[in-house]
Each structure stands twice: as C-alpha cells, then as structure tokens.
Amino acid sequence: MRKSYEFFLLYNKEMFFNKFAYLYTLAVPLVIILLRHFDWFKDSPTWTVFQSAMIQFFAIMIVLTAINGIGISLLNQRESGFLKMYTFLSGQKFPVIFGRLMSQWFFLTLNMFAASLMMAMVFHQPLLKTMLMTGLLALIVPLPVFACSLLIAALPLKPETMTPLGTILIFAVFIFIDVFELTDNRLLAFFSFLNPANLILNEARFLTGNVSDGMMGLSILTGILVYLVVGYVAYQRLSITSKTNR
C-alpha cells in the first residue's frame, strides 16, 4: 500500500498542474444542471427535487471521471511508455493503477463536496443533510464504474483514436439514460445496469432510500458484480507495453 500511496501523491500533483481536467469534471455537469433547473433561482426547490437533481449531477461527474480520468488516462500512459516505466519502478502494475483510481476518487470527492456546498447554499437546502448525502454517495457509488473503466485502458487503441471515441461514449451513455428510466418493461429496467449512468443513478437512489423495489435492488447487485468482474478481467489483461507502437 506504501507504493500505491506514492503513486497517489504523484497523480495528485499531476492533477494540480493539469487544472483543466479537474475543472472540466466540475464545470460541465454544473452547467448542465443549472441550465436544466434555471427556475431554481426564482423558487428554491424542495429537498426531494434537489436531491434528485444532485444525484443526476453526481452521475455525470462519475462517468466523466471514469472515462477520461481513469480509462483514457491509463491508455495514454500505456502508449507513452509511462505505465511500463512506473511498473518497472514499483515492481508490479497494481500500485500504479490503484494509485490512479484513488487519486481520481479523491478529486471526484472534492468536486462533489464543493458542488454540493455551493448548490446547497445558493438554493437554500439543509447543509448538513446535503453533505451527509454527498459523503455517502462519494464513498460507495463510483467504485463499480471506476473498476469497469479499466476496460478502456486494456483496449488495443491509440490515444488519438480513443479520445474521440470516449467523447462519443460519454454522449451515448447520457442519451440512453431515458431509454431505461422511462421504460415500463421490467426486463429492460432490470438490465438498466448496462448503462453506467443508470447504474450510478439506481445505486444512489437505493442508498438514499428512494428505491425499495426488490427487482431494482437485484438489478443493482447484478450490475455491481458484473462491473467488478469486468474490471478484474480488464486489469488482468491490461498490458503495460504499447499495443500500437510495436
């Protein structure tokens, strides 16, 4: 764990120098939520409405972090040779990758708390309640999607190919949210975990007591297990050497 901590610190320094990536993860979801709920500046929302909007906000942040901050970043490291170099220095790839996951988790949590604090103060929501909700969701919800994002890093693609594909993937994830959210088909609703944003939304609603349906609970559990298994397999297959520059 000592080696993982060293890489955690290294990646944190990288994030402080690359402020654009940090602010991008915070600003994009914030703009989307404020545009969708501009009427809140006139009339403050109820706690239920506010909580629902914040859960959607967190889902956007988590997906952006998983795809860009973990998947594509590790792929870039692999193709540039840094993943191989870091692995050589540490003796194995686990501390390098785990350090990246922890660093992104740390900055995601900071963003979530910063956004929650600002939104709660601006729209007159209970501050302690908002912070407790944020802490609970930040602690648990991102883990399965973060693990699954290792699949991107394991793909035999060049960074210049994966970057536009990542943008398309982000749009696809959010376009298909409503397909699962609005369906009356229980089988389709069960497989909503196939969309990471829907899995995040369902996890968050379950943890905040807004989902009590047994079938949805089973869907969430299945989704978490599938994402963790995919992440484990992707980790095992993730090469530390470039797959395109041989």
Describe, in plain words, how this protein is organized in 3D:
Keywords: Membrane, Transmembrane, Transmembrane helix. The chain crosses the membrane at residues 21-38, 53-75, 105-123, 135-155, 161-180, 214-235. There is one protein chain. The protein has 246 residues and is mostly helical. It has one domain (2-38, 46-237). Helices cover 79% and strands 0% of the residues. It contains 13 helices and no strands. The longest helix has 34 residues, at 47-80. The relative contact order is 0.14.
Level of helix content?
Answer: over 70%
Task: Evaluate the radius of gyration.
Answer: 18 Å
**How do the helices and strands follow one another from N- to C-terminus?**
HHHHHHHHHHHHH
Mean pLDDT across residues:
86
Tell me the structural class: mainly alpha
Structurally, the number of domains stands at 1
